[in-house]
Amino acid sequence: MEGSSVRTLEKICVFCGANYGKDESYVKATHRLGEVLGKRGINLIYGGGSLRLMGCVSTAIAVHGRRVLGIVPSTFTKKNLIGKTCGKELKVANMHERLLKMMEFGDASIALLGGFGTLKELFQIFFWA
Q1: Which residues pair with 101 in a beta bridge?
Q2: Which of 126, 86, 119, 95 is closest to 17 using CA atoms?
Q3: Do 129 and 104 touch, CB atoms closer than 8 A?
Q4: pLDDT for res 113
Q5: CB environment 40-59: b (16+ within 10 A), e (fewer)
Q6: Helix (H) or strand (E) holding 33
Q7: 116 Cβ partners below 8 Å, 6+ apart?
Q8: Helix 116-128 vs helix 95-105: angle between axes, to the nearest 10 degrees?
Q9: Range list of β-strands (E), the chain
Q10: DSSP string, 109-126
Q11: What dihedral angle (degrees, nearest 10) is formed by the CA atoms of 120, 109, 62, 73?
Q12: What 8-state DSSP symbol labels residue 48?
């Protein structure tokens, strides 16, 4: 199509549960997603930390030399609820600001299995789009 442009994805926001889930396949799928994104040269924007599924995807991407940005509400880091972010960490005031920054910095979003928090963030993205 004449005049059309192709947009390349450089940074993906990944939303996923802060737990491992009920089945080992969730961990394998999350790790595989990180590997695929890393091999394709895509950087990660995510909720930060090194624990459970969020840690799994960030570590898999970082192993492939890609940049990782964790956007974390300051209360999470004060209480050490999420572990150390693999890569750079941007501290924000609250969960709402976290989501705003993730959408600002990311080119696209992927939601993996998660709980009510993941679902809430996904719906907010839909309504803001």
Answers
A1: none
A2: 119
A3: no
A4: 79
A5: eebbbbbbbbbebbbbbbbb
A6: helix 24-39
A7: none
A8: 50
A9: 11-15, 43-46, 68-73, 88-92, 108-111
A10: EEE-S--HHHHHHHHHHH
A11: -40
A12: -
**Which tokens hold the place of 17?**
């549960």
- Strands 68-73, 88-92: pairing is parallel
Distance CA 39, CA 75 (A): 33
pLDDT in tens, 73-84: 887 766 666 667
Q: Which amino acid is at 119?
A: L
Q: At what angle do helices 24-39 and 52-62 cross, to 10 degrees?
A: 30
- Over residues 98-125, the mean pLDDT reads 89
Q: Residue written as tokens 């969020």?
A: 54
Q: Position 88: which residue type?
A: K
Torsion of CA 88, 41, 30, 117, to 10 degrees: 50
d(CA 24, CA 99): 28
CA atoms lying within 13 Å on the CB side of residue 23? 5
- The pTM of this model reads 0.86
Residue with the two structure tokens 């940005």: 69
